[in-house]
Amino acid sequence: MKKIFSNEAFEVMHNRNFRLFLMFRFFMTSATLMQSVVVGWLLYNITKDVLSLGMIGLTEVIPQVSIALFAGHFVDIWDRKKIIFYTTFLLLFGSIILLVYSLPAYDFHRMFGVVPIFVTIFLTGLTRGILMPANTALLGQLVPRKLLTGAATWNSTVWQVGAVTGPAIGGLVYGFFGVIPALSLVLFFYLLCTVLLLFIKSPGKIVVLPGSTEGIFARMREGIHYVFKNQILLGAFTLDMFAVLFGGAVAMLPVFASDVLKVGPEGLGILRACPAIGAIMMSVVLTFYPPVKRSGRLLLFSIVGFGLSMIVFALSKNFYLSAFVLFLSGVFDDVSVVIRASILQLFTSDEMKGRVAAVNSIFIGSSNELGAFESGVTARLMGLIPSVVFGGVMTLLVVTFAAVKSPTLRKLNLKM
Predict the structure, then answer these.
(1) CA dihedral defined by 324, 168, 311, 284, rounded to 10 degrees?
(2) Using the 8-state DSSP alphabet, how is residue 350 labeled?
(3) Is residue 208 part of a domain?
(4) Distances (CA, A) of 94 to 89, 118, 170, 187
(5) Which of 165, 187, 288, 316 is the most exposed place for a label (fewest CB within 10 A)?
(6) Which residue, 315, 292, 351, is CA-closest to 152?
(7) 278-336, pLDDT tens digit by residue?
(8) What is the pLDDT of residue 3?
(9) How many structural domains are present in the chain?
């Protein structure tokens, strides 16, 4: 164990730029998900409509998908750190819009309805379409190849810690102090992100290899073809896309907290944090025992566990049981996240990582927002609880299909 601790699990943490990058990821994740909790509760309080929560996902996914491939192209030819730095200012601008909109002295929600909320959500989707490929590609530059699996595990751990901190603090601050202090904290966290980026030494642009495709649309096609020619990348991306599309219940948590479990914004913050708590605990395990053996089977089993967790959550009427199965969903999801992140880093060359990560953001990132929209629509048509059960069952069917049709992914081992 001592050898693993010193030589493998923590070797990547000797990298100063990587440590700063992890701090940036923590505050970025915390601020974004904190804002998500506040926006979800605020919007549902104004509209009392489950479909409006689903529209959050649709409003976010449209700009994200629209810009992702273009972003991937520029991430592969421009300085990746600078792209992240300038894009962060869009998130700052969006948080300012929300803060001003929520000031009680002006009663802007009566003047403008929920339009400013959706403008902010649109900006968030736009920045995610840029930041997802940029973050993935920059990580590949900051860390040597032999440490990428460890870096992916730490990156997932820090993201999950932020995913606990953000929703929990957001729900608690909103519940006890109100919307203005909660949104002010979001703005402060985004400001910290910009400061941290100033101290990360830029690794510079990736050298474009001789004979590489020229022209933005040709390079975008090259990134798409790269993914579709690689059965491991394609299988992992597709599997997770459909599993998340049908299996997620996060978008409906404000309704479960308000109408089913009746626990208020404080309870909502706890529910939002539970999956990340489970993921953090699993990340600690994966730090010492990375999933490099029988990785494909672990990926499939983890998504099965995620789907079953969603079904139990939908049927639960007890807050503690609901919190526990959300915790388990985070345990299973983290295994999937770490394996997929390692696949992307290990099976993609540096000069292609921006474009491949952009394709990944369309497959996986957009599936979260489309999943939120799907949850809102099915909740309206089928009812809240049946819609989440339906999503969990569909997740199990998708995994079964992938296990049968993709033997290469099923037999995958990440040990290099």
Answers:
(1) -60
(2) G
(3) no
(4) 9, 10, 17, 9
(5) 288
(6) 292
(7) 888 888 888 777 777 788 888 888 888 988 998 999 898 899 999 999 999 888 888 88
(8) 43
(9) 1
**pLDDT tens digit string along 351-382?**
778 888 787 777 766 566 566 666 777 777 88
Distance between CA atoms of residues 97 and 81, nearest Å: 25
**What is the Cα–Cα distance from 46 to 375, expressed in whole angstroms?**
19
- Give me the pLDDT at residue 204, please: 76
Judge whether 92 lies within some domain.
yes
Residue 269 and residue 323: Cα distance in Å, rounded?
11
76 is in which domain, residue-wise? Answer: 2-200+215-410
In a domain, 167, yes or no: yes
Angstrom distance (rounded) from CA 293 to CA 415: 6
CATH number for the domain that contains residue 20: 1.20.1250.20
Rounded distance, CA 106 to CA 2, Å? 60
Rg over CA atoms, the chain: 20
Chain centroid to CA 250: how far?
Answer: 12
- CA nearest 369: which of 188, 118, 182, 191? 118
